[in-house]
Amino acid sequence: MRRILIVLLLAILLLPAPHKNKPELFGPGPLLVRIRPLPLSSIDPSIREVGALRYVGGWQLSSPHQGFGGISSLLVDSSGQVLALSDSGTLMGFAVRPRPDNRHPFIAPLPVRPKDREQPWWAWDSEALAHDPTTDRYWVGFEMLQKICRYGPGFARAEACRTWPEIEAWPETGSIESMTRMPDGRFLVISEMGMTADGSHDTLLFSGDPADGATPAPIHLRYVPPRGYRPTDVVAIDDRRLLVLNRRVTLQDLFTATLAIVDLPAAPHPGHKLKARTLARLAPPLLADNFEGLAISREQGQTMVWIVSDDNHEFFQRTLLLKFALRL
Q1: pTM of the predicted model, to two decimals?
Q2: I need a surface site. Which of 11, 39, 139, 163 has the fewest CB within 10 A?
Q3: Residue 239: what pLDDT?
Q4: What does the domain layout of the chain look like in residue ranges?
Q5: Beta strand pairing call for 230-236 and 277-282
Q6: What are the residues facing 221 on neighbouring strands?
């Protein structure tokens, strides 16, 4: 009975609704992050391989700052600098390894356009993050508000926001969960709970900037996750291959996650199915939690995969950051 109650509580926490433990508004400032290294397996510290992934390192993160946690998406550069985004519109910048060129760790709320300031603070449930390294612009997907916003370099200001009818058709409590910008400038957005008749997830492929009013309507594709899982984040390896992070909650294992790869067709057409091929599964006794964020970085020609968990600002959950080398 106790385990059933835990699963029900976790299911409630996964809904993007106002929650008493979400931090209220605060200003930008420095951030102290405590970092504790962890083995991949709780029973055998020598285990470093899981599927197509080789474990490079993992850390439990904590901070005395009230706004830290709730991480739903992240970006990581080649030097290991992490830019994380919480599900309450909070940016966090830090590094897990000391380097002479590390930037100062910080925490700050996302900038908001004057016309949007009437929205309650808890409605800015930011779940997805994308970046264009050429222009240094960023895009954020908001699940409950069902809109995508573009931000200027360094997140200095919100430049544009757009709400699409294709996204408004998704459930408010399960819409924009995963978004990536591909190297050729296309964007792909996956719904968490916007299901099609065959059980696949409605997926939108935009030919350009989804926050731009001139961008044409997207193509509807269908993402088919591993059985029993739902997508929580996506990242483009290149213009044709995508990595997708998927989550499941069960009575037996509580949280488990899979990392899958999908191939985009050369000429996508409406209704095309993107079938996931599992690369690795994270389940006890391996590190497992509410994994929601996915990023890749390049280090000496090697693709590194970063996975982060959302602790829902609850004392019984953890913020875990894992780093793997990808072998394809």
Answers
A1: 0.93
A2: 11
A3: 95
A4: 2-326
A5: unpaired
A6: 203
